[in-house]
Structure formats: structure tokens, C-alpha cells
Amino acid sequence: MSKEKLITMINKAITMEHAARIQYLTHVECVSGLGSASIIARLKEIASDEKEHEDIFREMLGGYLGGIPSMEIATTHPADGINNILETNLKDEKEAVDFYSEIMKELKETRDELKYEYYQLEHNLRHVIMDEQEHISEIKLLLGL
Description:
The protein has one domain (3-143): Up-down Bundle (Ferritin). The protein contains four helices and no strands. The chain has helices at 3-28, 36-65, 82-109, 118-143. The N and C termini lie far apart (39 Å).
């Protein structure tokens, strides 16, 4: 595979993280009812994590791969009601983990081409995947799953 494909994939990840951050912040404004304060706090914290992921992916592109980070946004998913909001975001978090795992496979295939960047890129990507898996776990707990 190629470094160019990796750049394209990471740019897509940036658009996904940007959308996720906007989606979480918007969903916060739709949460109400008993126990909503703790859910609102957690959704805001996850939105902050998504901003961090955007930054990590941008640095991976600009600092290590010589790519130009995207300024686009992926599709967002409106939702209302606590359960619908949590289920919507759970689905999106799972899709992110699946896609980022594909990026990890691509990164491993491009390892020889990235002799002096590979470990930093792998570390950063692994960090993001672990955060997303934590989000999945937390959302499941909030849903009582």
C-alpha cells in the first residue's frame, strides 16, 4: 500500500472526529430529565476527547506524513431523548473503532515506507482507538447494557 492511501484515510478520520465533536456538543443541548446532569457532563467530556483526536490526526498528517489535514466534516446524526442520543453515539463510536482499525492495518502495511515515523504514528493511532473503546464502554454503561 502507500503513504498516500494512509493520508487519505487519516483525513477521513479527521472529518469523523470533527463530526463526532459537533454531534456530542449538539446532543448535550437535547438531554433533559432526571439524571441528565451526569450524562451531559460525560458527553461534554467525550466531545473534548474527540477534539483531542482531531488534533492527534492533524499532527500525524502534518508532522509525520507530509499531508494536508482536511477541514471537512463527516455526516452527523441528529437524535433526541437520552436513549436515542446514547444509541446513536454508540453506533458511531463502533464505526470509528472499525475504521481506525483499518487505518492501523494500512499503517502496518506501510511500515517500511515510514521507517522513522512508524512507531509514533502507531502509538498515536493506538491511543485514539483505546479512547474510542473507552467511549463505547461508558456509553454502554449509561445505557445499562
